[in-house]
């Protein structure tokens, strides 16, 4: 019996001397496990670093802490013995075996390695899970694909906007939300715009439904179309006609036409048409607005002189041989 005990003692001493005991016997009780050694997180979202730890049964954990980059000596982003931790870093574990950490509203500066450390009531009873969990912080982006190959987006085209990130974390279509000019549109990773018109032009963003701070960069959709809603306004005091038209890209050319005795002739090529003050009779005018997608005409405006009119009965009657009048026809 004595010989067996002495043999066991020598075996243990040999293990200590070769350094194997610290791994196979003692250190096996001290351990920190990270469920995900590498994590990709979208800026503005929240993330939980899942973590568990173990230690010898005769120890009581007194302090827990999390380090970011400086994982051994600190400063620590969370320390159970300090009130200086940022509210963005929340310890959701305990002092028994759960060491999970939640980070709220993740920022780019949060990128890097995180490691858990704990201290027990025993001399030298402390441990750091130095393998840690490393965070990569990325932004949302919006990619755009068109079914037609021309560079610009034109009325009638179909466009897909896809919310993407560099994590390549798979399909989370149910947790994405789309906005146009800040107003909610729909949920889903892909926003399909079919048979687009000028009303689809605007600034689009996507975000995670679970985090209002996860908004992507802005993707501007610019639908191009030919002139429309072309009209003429009048400035009577200067006898000026002004052509207005809605177009994208903007109107490149304006052309004015005069109709007199059933004959149409060009009258000008500017945005405004200044009429001559020495003419007599009636003339009809209209303008045509043109860009690369086509042209559109306004309605006709009648410019007339030599019209007599009567004021109401309680007013002085007056006739004027050079009265200027405009009528939209």
TrEMBL record:
All residue ranges annotated as the Ig-like domain in the record: 142-224, 227-308
Alphabetical list of SMART domains matching this protein: IG, IGc2
Key word Transit peptide present: no
Upper taxonomic lineage: Eukaryota, Metazoa, Chordata, Craniata, Vertebrata
Gene3D superfamilies in alphabetical order: Immunoglobulins (2.60.40.10)
Record PROSITE patterns: IG_LIKE
One Pfam family in the UniProt entry: Ig_3
Annotated protein name in UniProt: B-cell receptor CD22
Signal peptide range in chain numbering: 1-23
Keywords on record: Signal
